[in-house]
User: Fold this.
Amino acid sequence: MERIHITQHTSLGALWFAGWLFTIGYLKLQFWMGLLGLIIWPYFLGSHFAPQ
Assistant:
């Protein structure tokens, strides 16, 4: 019988969410621009840090 090990990384997600909220507040973005940033920001981070 195999054991399954589940690891949760909620602290990293909370840090990302706090950074997102800080960015919206610092740039004084409107709600829709902040929501758009929520969708686009992970894409640009992933494409920037992806191996070439």
